[in-house]
Write a structure and sequence with these properties.
By secondary structure, the chain is α/β, with parallel strands linked by helices. It folds into three domains: 249 residues, Rossmann fold, CATH 3.40.50.620; 133 residues, Ribosomal Protein L25, Chain P; 43 residues, no CATH class. The strands form six sheets. A seven-stranded mixed beta sheet has the order 10-23-24-25-21-22-11. The structure holds adenosine-5'-triphosphate and magnesium ion.
Length: 596
């Protein structure tokens, strides 16, 4: 186990930890804690799965136990090995290790079959000839009891014979099922003689064509946990009503009985976490793939520049409860900023370049100025950035007729170039056709190298820049929410109506400081005043460097956290004193420069 939380966000105490602790104290499960993460390989993992992963691996780690990775691959129609590979990669990337405990429910098909035979022998399961539709009809409703299948009274011998012939492929798909014989009048619908096996001639990604009957999830899941000796089987709330059935199965079989505990699934604002809907986004081309940087999948978040630590911290910050609620996407972004702020290399990047000519700077001269790599981390050191007569600055850092509170460049105004000199605007040129400013003419004060004037003269604005000739061209993608409403999932299948048509803005012709020619994937960068970015390896291959913005610097959540922290609220658990918080606020403002 190597997934240590970065300082600051420890998992909060929760009801599951209390239960496990109790079990440890009273000797239930002989002091063992053995959890599992059981994905169905029918899609890529998303941030909701991260919550389940961090919880299951985290609990085991805390109590000295272990965790299995198990693929619940009981439905061959929807499952593919592509998904298996991506899931393995993503859990590993998050920082978790299952040792040699990688399992597949399909490994247990034979055992499950034998156990089904045992239930038949004990008169607890029967072969039913009702069609799927009839089974539904007979099932009854929440207010009305169900009706017993006319095949419920079949003899053990007949059931054994028919079940063997189901396996042997003597019947057509859907012609018969094996059902548990429990109680058609049970208040819990899951106990009304649930289907355990259906006939389905489908190729399975691991067992190939060996089987034409497949166990249902309900039949396979609890038994798989039991076979693996799982002690605490943590899952989301929708399985609460299935627990009595899982308990019934293990009791009827007389096998190891894991304790299932349900928790509320993660629901994130402006985000869809249904695999079916995510698949639809991919299939219909609304996004470029499962790893599109706008997707809430782990592969999408990774490509977007999220670090494993930021995701683990997020999962610990939001906590675990039984109450369904929605978590603000801003909390996830907050965790990314907290982590990236510590580690990201600061660089100058001009996203919408405007040429600046410094009239009194010699032509052809290039100076190397010293810039700090990360003010949060002195060990990160400094680098040299070239300065020359022609620069690029951000278009938004110049205004012909600036309003009062605009502290950047305008005719006659002076600003500080970060790590450079003071420059004053003496003139500008416009495109005669459009009136757009195309060049700003300035003078610089050679006495202000490093950003201080010897005469104590102050400037209010500090802007970033790059040397025109030496800068590196790049494409930069800025992202916004994929959906325009906080709860796109609430509108059922109409969620596509809420897709944000402006969820990505692609800026071409950006200019980065010279050293970025050697930018590497997997390294977080802070483009000064613009946010955190990462190189998109795939889209940079063989072409112009392409960067994705992970998050902007604007941090509305930090303010809320700070406020709650001051009031002693929970999310403020960053361990910062009031003064440290004030310093941080000041730093956040500085990072944004005089950006308004
Ligand atoms: P499906 O509808 O295909 O079952 P699923 O998201 O439940 O989708 P699984 O592969 O069954 O996918 O999920 C694996 C595990 O992750 C399960 O234990 C499930 O409870 C958990 N999980 C899934 N979604 C969330 C979520 N939003 N929050 C927390 N845990 C989740
Ligand atoms: Mg599921």
């Amino acid at each position: 186990m190597n997934a240590k939380n970065s300082p600051g966000i420890e998992p909060a105490p929760n009801f599951i930890r209390s239960i496990v602790k109790q079990h440890m104290e009273d000797g239930t499960f002989d002091g063992r804690v053995h959890t599992r993460f059981p994905p169905e390989p029918n899609g890529f993992l998303h941030i909701g799965h991260a919550k389940a992963i961090v919880l299951s691996f985290g609990i085991a780690e805390e109590f000295g136990g272990v965790t299995n990775l198990r693929f619940d691959d009981t439905n061959p129609i929807k499952e593919e090995s592509l998904y298996v590979e991506s899931i393995i990669k993503d859990v590993r990337w998050l920082g978790y290790d299952w040792g040699d405990r990688l399992f597949y429910a399909s490994d247990y098909f034979e055992t499950l079959y034998e156990w089904a035979v045992k239930l038949i022998r004990d008169g607890k399961a029967f072969v039913c000839d009702l069609s799927a539709e009839q089974v539904r009809e007979y099932r009854g409703t929440l207010t009305e009891p169900g009706r017993e299948s006319p095949y419920r009274g079949r003899s053990v011998e007949e059931n054994l014979d028919l079940f063997a012939r189901m396996r042997a492929g003597e019947f057509a798909d859907g012609e018969r099922t094996l059902r548990a014989k429990i109680d058609m009048a049970a208040a819990n619908l899951n106990l009304r003689d649930p289907v355990m096996y259906r006939i389905m001639r489908a190729h399975h990604h691991r067992t190939g064509d060996a089987w034409c009957i497949y166990p249902t999830y309900d039949w396979a899941h609890g038994q798989s946990d039991s076979i693996e000796g799982i002690t605490h089987s943590l899952c989301t709330l929708e399985f609460e009503d299935h627990r009595p059935l899982y308990d019934w199965f293990v009791e009827a079989l007389g096998v190891h009985h894991p304790q299932q505990i349900e928790f509320a699934p993660l629901n994130l604002s402006y985000t869809i976490l249904s695999k079916r809907k995510l698949l639809q986004l991919v299939r219909e081309g609304h996004v470029s793939g499962w790893d599109d940087p706008r997707m809430p999948t782990l592969s999408g978040l990774r490509r977007r520049g999220y670090t494993p630590a930021s995701i683990r911290n997020f999962c610990n910050l939001i906590g675990v409860g039984k109450q369904l609620s929605q978590v603000e996407l801003g909390q996830l972004e907050y965790c990314a900023r907290e982590d990236l702020n510590r580690t990201a290399l600061r660089v100058n990047a001009v996203l919408r370049p405007l040429r600046v000519v410094i009239e009194n700077y010699p032509e052809g001269k290039v100076e190397e100025l010293e810039a700090i790599n990360n003010p949060e981390d002195p060990a990160a050191g400094t680098r040299r950035v070239p300065f020359a007569r022609e620069l690029f600055i951000e278009r938004t850092d110049f205004m012909v007729d600036p309003p009062k509170k605009y502290f950047r460049l305008g005719p006659g105004r002076e600003v500080r170039l970060r790590y450079g000199y003071f420059i004053r605007c003496v003139d500008y040129k416009t495109d005669p056709a459009t009136g757009e400013v195309v060049e700003v003419r300035c003078t610089y004060d050679p006495e202000t190298r490093g950003g201080q004037a010897p005469d104590g003269r102050k400037v209010k604005g500090t802007i970033h820049w790059v040397a025109a000739e030496r800068s590196v061209p790049a494409t930069v993608r800025l992202y916004d929410h994929l959906f325009t409403v906080p709860d796109p999932g609430a509108s059922g299948d109409d969620f596509l109506a809420h897709l944000n048509p402006e969820s990505v803005e692609v800026l071409r012709g950006c200019r980065l400081e010279a050293g970025m020619a050697a930018a590497r994937a997997g390294v977080p960068y802070q483009f000064e005043r613009q946010g955190y970015f990462c190189l998109d390896e795939e889209d940079s291959r063989g072409g112009e460097l392409t960067f994705n913005r992970t998050v902007s610097l604007r941090d509305s959540w930090a303010k809320i956290v700070q406020k709650q922290g001051q009031q002693g609220g929970k999310p403020g658990a960053t361990g910062k004193s009031g003064r440290a918080r004030k310093r941080k606020r000041k730093r956040d403002q500085d990072q944004q420069g005089s950006n308004q």
